[in-house]
Amino acid sequence: MKTIAFLVVPFALVFSVSCSVNPTALAGPDETLSGKDTLPPPFQTKSVQNYSKVIGWADGNTPVAPAGFTVTKFADKLEHPRWIYVADNGDVFVAESNALLKGTKKLASELSQMIGTQQQAESANRITLFRDADKDGVPEGRFVFAEDLNQPFGMLILNDHFYVANTDGLMQFDYKAGDTRLTGKGEMILSLPANKPNRHWTRNIVANRTGDKIYIGVGSSTNVAENGLDKETGRAAIWEVNPDGSGSRIYASGLRNPVGMAWAPGTSVLWATVNERDELGDELVPDYLTGVKEGGFYGWPFTYWGQYPDPRMKDVPKPEFVSKTIVPDVSLGSHVAPLGLVFYDKTTFPSKYRNGAFIAQHGSWNRKELSGYKVVFVPFIDGRPSGKMEDFLTGFIVEGSTDSEVRGRPVGLALLADGSMLVSDDASNTIWRISASRSDTSLLHHPIGAKIMSNDKVTNASPYVLPALPYADNALEPVISANTIRFHYGKHHKGYVDNLNKLIAGTEFAELPLEKIITETAGKGDKAAIFNNAAQTWNHTFYWHSLSPKGGGEPPVTLKRKIEASFGTLDACKKELANAAMAQFGSGWVWLVLDGEKLKVVKTGNADVPMTIGLKPLLTIDVWEHAYYLDYQNRRADYVNAVLDKLINWDFAAENLR
Question: Do 414 and 520 belong to one domain?
Fold first, then answer.
């Protein structure tokens, strides 16, 4: 077992700060939080205790999602389900755990309604596994995966190990995909601070995309270091550690209680939800979502939201680095208790949600009027917040109640391979599933994992529409110019969609999903025109998603291991793709596909697509001349190599591998 090593100057929350930022932060639906006069003074309102009263969900009632979404019960009869982790094979793991109260603290909580709000006092200390083998959104299998843990929270599968973040340490167990029970006692590879009162006991964990680092959120022991700074050593911080527990260090500090953590799609930036301090009044202090700067300091306990001083720390000497406190990116509101965080990197929700952040707000206790108790959405473009926060999943608060009644409290969020989202509700002991209704989704879910083509009807004669590009037309420059995109996408791709609509109008194919049209017409001479236009529509959409402005580089760890098992090295895989592209005579496509358990490279001519011969496509490169001639003339090799080095979307391939 390893323990963290770092300098204490004067306590372990703080480290060197090399940068300071001043982003615009979103305070609410109609305001921004960017100026020093936008926050009220401390104690403008009295600090109150307003614990909600949980009444549960009446029969048939569910949380409320926007029009076009369906909310169903995924699982119930759990014991305080906090966190959700979805494995690559689709297994869903749920950590059942809770804060612990004993003696006089337990009695005080019972008297104050706190136990009814947070179900505190007992912890199941268990992980339950759900398996939905037929992928219909209702798990058939339920297994006790692990027991006798110590307030487990974050979970992670990495390098044939299952990691569990207990409140006092990072546990590592041997694991193979498909296991329904952890065997052995496991090993605590890293000790984590859990000194009393351990007010913030959850420990979330995430790995970076290459799988060589693990990040751990460790909240403060108290509200505002009221027991002394020496009791906060190693706390209010995000740690970084190697998968074997070695090399631990503080990645960022001054984060009172960082819980949700996730990487913004297409970037190497870690984002976190942070619960800020209490007892300064109804409108202080804003909880937040922020991109986490390596080595950054975010204020706790000395200041908040940059340089706002906490009056309770006025007599405590402030280290020099406090002057470099980083202002968070997005205000989520005061006392909302943001926990779960996922970036929507799937494609079955409408396009407005692509790459944006969903955040579960567990809800307030320190505010006269309840706040939080919902799931919100923050849009992102190119890895940065791009619009105002909006409600997504509501109905937890009982409207009109005079007794602060709520039906539940959202905590953890996770995405399934089909693009639906799971939400844990620890107050009602339920896992909810939110899916997009087919008639309102902008992309059709393809059985192979690529969700790529709209099936919404525009007119009776036009059942298919040209799907939007997943990026701006100049986003792939200088590798692929905006001029090429406008010609390739706006003329060629659109032409296939228009021709398909004309060919299938009034036929038995008019109401079929796109991939069904392809499989029904493949190899049939009298249906060749329909096949060619349907397959080219599908192939081109798949191609656009196979490219990314943030592409190239290293694949996600699961895909990289699969590539190495099949080709030896990533470079060997890229070389085989390039060679196949050059060997394809005339027009066609080069594909990375899954054939059984092995990856391989195949090429197809004209409109042919791997799914018609039982192969699962992961990504493709278009080697038709119109894909590159305007930029490269006849230099196909230069185009292919540039795509492989700078644009190839390994994240998309990894998603299709699932």
Answer: no
In angstroms, rounded to a whole number, what is the distance separating the alpha carbons of residues 434 and 394? 12
Number of domains in the chain: 2
Backbone angles phi, psi at 340, to 5 degrees: -65, 145
Together in a domain, 427 and 507: no
For residue 196, give its domain range: 47-69+78-440
List, for residues 199-223, the tens digit of each pLDDT value. 999 999 999 989 999 999 999 999 9
Distance CA 106, CA 128 (A): 27
642 Rama class: left (phi>0) / alpha (psi -120 to 50) / beta: alpha
The DSSP string of 420-461 is -EEEEETTTTEEEEEEE-GGG-SSEEPTTS-EEE----SBTT
Contact 322, 303 (CB under 8 A): yes
pLDDT, tens only, 344-401: 988 788 888 989 999 999 999 999 999 999 999 999 988 999 999 999 999 999 998 9
Cis amide leading into 301 (omega within 30): yes
d(CA 625, CA 617): 22
Cross-strand bridge partners of residue 333? 287
pTM as predicted: 0.69
Sign of CA dihedral 168, 285, 356, 434: positive
Query: Interhelix angle for 514-521 vs 528-545, to 10°?
Result: 130
- State the Rg of the chain over Cα: 26
d(CA 68, CA 350): 9
Does residue 427 share a domain with residue 561? Answer: no
Q: Answer yes or no: do 94 and 195 share one domain.
A: yes
CB 325 within 8 A of CB 284: no
